[in-house]
Amino acid sequence: MIQAQILEPSSTFRLSHIRARTKDALIVDDHPIVREAIKALLEKSFPDVRVTECDGRISVVNRICGGNWAFVVLDMNLPERNGLDILKAVKSAGNEVPIIVFSLYAEEQYAARAIRAGAKAYVSKDRSPRELAEVIDIVLAGGGVRMAPASAPPALSDREVQVLSLLTKGISRKEIARMLGIGEKTVSTYRARLGLKLKARSLVDLIRYAAEEGFVD
Length: 217
Hints:
alpha/beta; 217 residues; two-stranded antiparallel sheet; five-stranded parallel beta sheet
C-alpha cells in the first residue's frame, strides 16, 4: 500500500512484473495525443502488454470493472465524470485492478485525495515518461513507491474541488447540478463555501486560485 503522495523515483528500474492473469492494460484519457503517447510508452516499456484506449466519455466505470486489466492509467479530469468519482465507484464495486492516476493536476493538490479514493499511485504529467513507467512497474510488483513528504492540501472537500473545477470552466450552476446529480441550490451553497474558504469575491478570483494551485488544467 502506498503511504505518501509525491513521486521520488527508486534506484532500480524493473519491467518484469506484469501479472500472469492478464496482459491487457487500459488507458483512460480524453486527449487522443496523450493516449497515443502513453500507449507508445507502455508498448516500449512492457512489450507483452496489449494496450486498449478509452476516451472517458461513456461508462468508464463499467469499462474498467468489465475488463481483466493488469492495470489502468486514468486521467483525473474527464468530460463526463471526475476521476475521484470513478476511483470511488470502482473501489465500491470491489474491483482491485491497480489504477495509476496520470494527471495535469499538481501532485501536492490531488495525490492524497486520489489515493484515498482507491488509486495505487499518482503521477503528475510534468514527470518524465520513465517515471510513469517506473511507478507502474513498482505497483505491479506489489511494492510501494517511495515518496517525498507532501505539503498539506487546501481544506476543500472532494465535492468542493469538483465544483471549483467545473465553475472555472464556465459551466453553469444548472449544468453542474445535472452533471453531479445534486440540486442547483446545493451548487450555490458549494460556491458560497468556496468563496469563504478561498477568500474569493468573484469567479475571476476562483479561477485565479484554481490555476495557481493546480486544480484546473
